[in-house]
Amino acid sequence: MKIGLVAPPFISIPPPQYGGTELFIGHLAAGLAARGVDVVLYTNGESKLPGVDVRWLYPKSEWPIRGEIFGNLKDLSHSAWAMQDAGEECDLIHGNNAAGVSHSRFVKKPFVYTIHHPLEPGLLDFYQKHPAVDYVCISRFQCRQHGLARSRTIHHGIDLNLYRLRETKKHYLSFLGRIAPVKGTHVAIEVAMRTGIPLKIAGEIQPMFKDYFEAEIRPHVDGKFIEYVGEADLRSKNELLGDSLALLFPISWDEPFGLVMPEAMACGTPVLAFPGGSVPELVSDGVSGYVCHSADDMIKRANELVNGPGLLPRTVRQYAEEHFSVDRMVSEYLALYRELVDKVASPNASDEAAEPKGVAA
């Protein structure tokens, strides 16, 4: 079986720093290749993935995107080229950018599309106009929100070998994510100040949220109690997450998945999170962290980690191994691919047998 895996053209795979979607694509491509699947990855020329046929139209990464119109045209051009190329020689195409969905009409191969973003009415209307696509949601919450007829849930997985279990923690809390109001960086600072536990903040400051950073984050950053350490690559993620008492995830939006939560768990670090979107699916109360319903609740749980018995790092890591491995994710995508390819090979199979079935991770 030959799979065409189409990524957006803006960030290399694997991503050097920012890039949740690209990290997922890199893990999936490598995991499929390790299972003997022939993978063609459509990305940019800076991407390097051993064992995978990497193809590109644009040689360089570009992030953040400079100019919305140019960025959209670049995405369209890349997607049209990738869909045409994959349509000629692949058994199935798996898209990860909305532009690819619009071109799915022009290929005769099964087309899978993973939805990586929160609910957006305009995009939902767009998806509904392409009913032949098999949609994959990254959380059950996201699947319920979108309500697409041909859809199922496959939770992301991470390469657990890349994350080290640290059983001895240092006295600080961590925040890792975009520095944005909906991500709750300011709430993480409040929790730190009210508990007296230092906080280390890592993440990208996007231009559209620079005012937020300057007004609500920078005034509290003193380099000692509240530190901003910039963007984090894999090595610094391991250190930041692995040494911390807990990852704070005080979101105020419906998170589609939240890859940083399994990353923290893989380091043996519990997650304290507000319950938006996917959080109750990912965080198991009292096992891998706590779902908190207010800043006061998060403060209480943070204090318990310091003053109480806490959560055992090895137990937190085990939870990640059981629920968020690349192996599990690859197996579920392979099952979907085979179902759709077999359906094309056996066109007389009943519609009932071909109906997509929900996958609960």
Structure, explained:
The chain folds into 2 domains: 2-157 and 326-354, Glycogen Phosphorylase B (Rossmann fold), CATH 3.40.50; 161-323, Rossmann fold. Strand 11 (247-249), helix 9 and strand 12 (271-273) form a beta-alpha-beta unit. It is α/β, with parallel strands linked by helices and 361 residues long. It is globular. The protein has a 7-stranded parallel sheet with strand order 3-2-1-4-5-6-7, with helices on both faces. Strands 8-9-10 form a 3-stranded parallel sheet, with helices on both faces. The protein has a 3-stranded parallel sheet with strand order 11-12-13. The chain has helices at 20-34, 68-89, 98-103, 121-128, 140-146, 185-195, 210-217, 234-243, 260-266, 279-282, 295-307, 313-323, 326-345, 351-354; strands at 2-6, 38-43, 53-56, 92-95, 111-115, 134-137, 151-153, 173-176, 199-202, 226-228, 247-249, 271-273, 289-291. It starts with a strand and ends in a 7-residue tail after the last helix. The chain contains 14 helices and 13 strands.
Task: Give a short summary of the structure.
By secondary structure, the chain is α/β, with parallel strands linked by helices.
Give the mean pLDDT: 93
Share in helix: 40-55%
What proportion strand?
5-15%
Q: Per the principal axes of the C-alpha atoms, what is the gross shape?
A: globular
Number of helices: 14
* CATH homologous superfamily annotation of the largest domain: Glycogen Phosphorylase B
Succession of helices and strands:
EHEEHEHEHEHEEHEHEHEHEHEHHHH
Largest sheet: 7 strands, parallel
Distance between the termini: 24 Å
Could you tell me the CATH topology label of the largest domain. Answer: Rossmann fold
Radius of gyration: 21 Å
